[in-house]
Every structure is written in structure tokens, then in C-alpha cells.
Hints:
Layout: H1 2-20, E1 71-73, E2 77-86, H2 88-97, E3 101-102, H3 108-119, E4 127-133, E5 142-143, E6 170-174, E7 179-182, E8 188-194
Antiparallel strand pairs: 1-2, 2-8, 3-8, 4-5, 4-6, 6-7
The chain binds calcium ion (CA) (2 copies).
Amino acid sequence: xxxxxxxxxxxxxxxxxxxxxxxxxxxxxxxxxxxxxxxxxxxxxxxxxxxxxxxxxxxxxxxxxxxxxxxxxxxxxxxxxxxxxxxxxxxxxxxxxxxxxxxxxxxxxxxxxxxxxxxxxxxxxxxxxxxxxxxxxxxxxxxxxxxxxxxxxxxxxxxxxxxxxxxxxxxxxxxxxxxxxxxxxxxxxxxxxxxxx
Length: 197
Ligand SMILES: [Ca+2]
Ligand SMILES: [Ca+2]
């Protein structure tokens, strides 16, 4: 059927070309239109414009630049505490929109730095969301960049944690310095990290 259709179209085109000296072969060329629009970092995408359907949008963040609202700790990293409480995934997105990511703790020194940021806030938050979860598989804790938490360089849990109490699949840090799992839809303050020292 397709071959016959193509043959008929070709014949039609030849006739058209003969009569009008115009080619209609252009109508066979399908140029895929790039209909999806990538979100602009820092701008909340509107409905249907998340960019997730467009693979080219997966390179999301602009090159990292220093921001005045982050605190810089030479040799360790740059951090910002958001005291506005958000569910874990919204916090993750908020950090990305600033060009960073939910903090990933890779050492005791970095944990202590995040605690300094938390303790500088008034009132001090008991917990902040950080960049790990076990959403893919219960008990398999990975960072938002896909690394197993036990290999990140910092894997100290608060006493009795993780306990998955009532289905807790998102990561947080307690003011006392240990990791915790909490319910992803429970709004918490959160700490973003810029990969810049
Ligand atoms: Ca869990
Ligand atoms: Ca827990």
C-alpha cells in the first residue's frame, strides 16, 4: 500500500512539475520540529514545558557561577540553607533552579560545614533535606547523582536510623550530625550545594 501511494504521489509530482515547473517533492521531506521547550534555569516551567520529553533538555544547568546568596567554604563547597519548608522533590528542583543540587555530603568536614550553615540560622532547623534517597529500591540509599551512600565518604546515621518508619524514602541530616530517612512529602528546610569552591 505504501509503495503504491508513493508511486501515485511521484506520478502526481511529475505531472505537476511538467505543468507548473514547480517541484512538490518538498512535501515528502518531513523536518521534525523541536516542539518541546527546555526550561530556563531559575524560571519555574509552565504546564507541559518541563523539558523532560526532550532529551536535549537533560543537560539542565547552566555553567555554575558564584551566587551571593551562598556561603563559600574554601576547599569544601558552597551552601545555602532554605528555611522555607518544601517536600523533598520540590527542594531538589529548587536547588537545580539555582544551578546547584541538594547537598551531597562526602566527608565529615563537609557534614560539619553543613551543620555550621544550619546553626547559623535562627531558629536552627532540627532537620534539613539532603541529596539522597531510597526511592528506587527500599533500603538502597543512593545520592541524587546515583552514587551509593556508603561510598560517598560520609555514611553516619543518627541513632536508630534509617528506620523507614511508615515508609521513609528521602534523605535528611539531623542537627546532631547524623543522617536520617524521612517521608518525602513531609516539608523540611533544605540545603543546596553549588559545585564551586
Ligand atoms: Ca525507605
Ligand atoms: Ca527515619
